Amino acid sequence: MRIFSGIQPTGRKHLGNYIGAILQYVEGQDRGDPAIYCIVDLHATTVGYDPAELRRRSQETAALLVAAGLDPERCVLFRQGDVPEHTELSWLLSSVTPLGALNRMHQFRDKSVAQRELVSAGLLFYPVLMAADVLAYRAHEVPVGEDQREHIELMRDVAETFNKRFGETLVVPEGNIPKVGARVRDLQEPERKMSTTGGTPKGTVYVDEDPASIVKKFKSAQTDSGNEIVRREDKPGIANLIEILAIVRGTTPEEIEREYSGPQRYGDFKTTVGEEVAASLAPVRERYAELQGDTATIEDILAAGAQKAQALAAPVVADVREAMGVGPALRRSVGGAA
Ligand code: TYM
Fold first, then answer.
1. pLDDT at 83 exceeding the cut of 80
2. Which residues are CB-neighbours of 258 under 8 A, at least 6 positions away?
3. What is the pLDDT of residue 337?
4. Fold held by 3-181+295-324
């Protein structure tokens, strides 16, 4: 089972990234054959950005993933821009991607409205590069949060269309969206997902945030005025806290509801969740602080990862070129004679 996932190096990583994705990456690294994790710096160039900051954030994201438990010996951890097969494949795949489908993508619509200056062609093309990320490795499983569902559908369609048009070449991947924690909500506005760009500052908890500040944010989380700890449509704030606590304790939301059945004080519950989240993130924060400034080590890890990634992606891209009739034919006679 080959696993692939990607994470953007923009902004500080938050509890949504941690619960919806990073914990899945860590779990997958011994199941994956191999598990491949990519810091998608090229995707981050599709909206306004600062080049020096992009490089720094890419290194920081790598450091955070290692601090969270990714072991570069047990998985392939690399930066997208270091492996040119991704960009080549994205061009090749663009010929089997309908423009209409790209135009309809929700993230494209939302992000293009949010752009104050240029709406780049790269923003429209974003899902094709993402399809290339996964398809270049013939990955079977893609662990992601709920907000990536549409992108997964598109890459599946692209792979299927390619195989129909040019013959069985690519693996059609499956998304792995967790049942619990796939959409961690903003603590202040629980109808929205937690996000560095779309969320509220007080409602967004960062993986590297100091424990006292994490507890404070949970204490001021928005809930209704009831006293039941249950997941109900009309209780998005409490439901969010239940799911977060279940993940942190390694149990189920049902178990949390059982434990807190009967009237409860929401204030106490919020404090409990905040303290347990802070405690579970504390070791990640400490390891991150040690690693963060060590750019030489991080770059070494990324360079070794890129080598492994390229060795996996190059033969797949060669097969795609061959199937599409691009460049000279692959087959050469044994012994190197023409
Ligand atoms: P990105 O960088 O926005 O997010 C990284 C991962 O975090 C998940 N996530 C969440 N999960 C639960 N609750 C939330 N509030 C929350 N916010 C974010 C995301 O679903 C994601 O899994 N397009 C991708 C990056 C990408 C990629 C890929 C992913 C590029 N190529 C190939 C998978 C495979 C993105 O922007 O993720």
1. yes
2. none
3. 46
4. Rossmann fold (3.40.50)
